[in-house]
Automatic annotation (TrEMBL):
<comment type="similarity">
    <text>Belongs to the enoyl-CoA hydratase/isomerase family.</text>
</comment>
<keyword id="KW-0496">Mitochondrion</keyword>
<dbReference type="Pfam" id="PF00378">
    <property type="entry name" value="ECH_1"/>
</dbReference>
<comment type="pathway">
    <text>Lipid metabolism; fatty acid beta-oxidation.</text>
</comment>
<dbReference type="InterPro" id="IPR001753">
    <property type="entry name" value="Enoyl-CoA_hydra/iso"/>
</dbReference>
<keyword id="KW-0413">Isomerase</keyword>
<keyword id="KW-0809">Transit peptide</keyword>
<protein>
    <recommendedName>
        <fullName>Enoyl-CoA delta isomerase 1, mitochondrial</fullName>
        <ecNumber>5.3.3.8</ecNumber>
    </recommendedName>
</protein>
<comment type="subunit">
    <text>Homotrimer.</text>
</comment>
<dbReference type="GO" id="GO:0005759">
    <property type="term" value="C:mitochondrial matrix"/>
</dbReference>
<dbReference type="InterPro" id="IPR018376">
    <property type="entry name" value="Enoyl-CoA_hyd/isom_CS"/>
</dbReference>
<dbReference type="GO" id="GO:0004165">
    <property type="term" value="F:delta(3)-delta(2)-enoyl-CoA isomerase activity"/>
</dbReference>
<keyword id="KW-0007">Acetylation</keyword>
<comment type="function">
    <text>Key enzyme of fatty acid beta-oxidation. Able to isomerize both 3-cis (3Z) and 3-trans (3E) double bonds into the 2-trans (2E) form in a range of enoyl-CoA species, with a preference for (3Z)-enoyl-CoAs over (3E)-enoyl-CoAs. The catalytic efficiency of this enzyme is not affected by the fatty acyl chain length.</text>
</comment>
<dbReference type="InterPro" id="IPR029045">
    <property type="entry name" value="ClpP/crotonase-like_dom_sf"/>
</dbReference>
<dbReference type="GO" id="GO:0006635">
    <property type="term" value="P:fatty acid beta-oxidation"/>
</dbReference>
<keyword id="KW-0443">Lipid metabolism</keyword>
Length: 229
């Protein structure tokens, strides 16, 4: 898989060349197996291959990988651990569930909760964004399913995006369709990737894009024809 250039950088872990290639090669032989580190929390599984420096973080929170307080907390802890592991240079975030990358913020977290709990949840959403956006590692979203609203934010916050091509999968900040205004920093993250005009239209109409449509609008430089990638 090949990826395009980005405007961010400044970390020693970024490759010298601005064009970065990630090889997802055949299964390793025995000597390589010892270089693999796995860790699993209830909602997130992480596999780090120290020989390549690439970690794969898989979301495993059925039914839809919604971003609950628990999920976000586990996500931040997993990212921090990788951040502290000097053998890790890049992380691929993806889903272990069929058809869904992430359904976005957990709606149940925003209903009938105490002000304290709401505050804690909202802080965790912001923390996820800050940690992912500010990561020293190369971050890649392998979007193997639908990714509305907060799921889209997470993908946009990564340095690169690859999406599986399937007409049933949509990605976008569709909050308007839900009667919610996307927070300004959701909007800014989208502007940084696809520009003002596309963002304006997408947010006004609450659009969800298919992989080829999103590619045309420069959401990413690659998409994957397999339904699972
Ligand atoms: C306290 C906060 C203070 C701050 C206040 C400001 C708040 C502003 C927030 C603004 C930003 C908002 C960002 C968001 O991300 S809001 C969430 C937006 N996401 C959605 O609306 C997704 C809706 N879901 C879907 O479109 C589909 O479910 C999906 C395409 C993801 C999957 O479709 P599928 O047909 O496969 O599955 P189902 O629809 O049958 O769903 C299966 C079960 O999953 C539950 N579900 C779905 N989405 C969510 C979700 N986001 N949170 C929690 N639960 C979710 C769904 O209800 C089904 O459950 P049941 O099986 O129990 O019925």
């Amino acid at each position: 898989m090949g990826f395009g250039t980005v405007s961010r950088g400044g970390s020693s872990r970024w490759p010298d060349q601005r064009l970065c290639t990630v090889e997802m090669g055949p299964p390793c032989h025995t000597s390589c197996l010892s270089r693999r580190k796995s860790s699993s929390s209830p909602k997130i599984k992480v596999d780090l291959d120290s020989s390549t420096g690439i970690a794969v973080m898989k979301f495993q929170s059925p039914p839809v990988n919604s971003l609950s307080l628990d999920f976000l907390t586990e996500f931040c802890i997993s990212l921090e651990k990788l951040e502290m592991d000097r053998s890790c240079r890049g992380v691929v975030v993806t889903s272990a569930l069929p058809k869904i990358f992430s359904a976005g913020l957990d709606i149940m977290e925003m209903y009938g909760k105490s002000p304290e709990r709401c505050g804690e949840f909202w802080k965790a959403v912001q923390e996820m964004w800050l940690k992912l956006y500010g990561s020293n590692m190369v971050t890649i979203a392998a979007i193997n399913g639908s990714s509305p609203a907060g799921g889209c934010l997470m993908a946009l916050t990564c340095d690169y995006r690859i999406m599986a091509e399937n007409p049933r999968y949509g990605i976008g900040l569709n909050e308007t369709q839900l009667g919610i205004v996307a927070p300004f920093w959701f909007k800014d993250t989208m502007v940084n990737t696809v520009g003002h005009r596309t963002t304006e239209l997408a947010l006004e109409l609450g659009l969800l894009y298919s992989a080829p449509d999103a590619l045309r609008l420069a959401w990413w430089t690659s998409w994957c024809r397999r339904t699972r990638c």
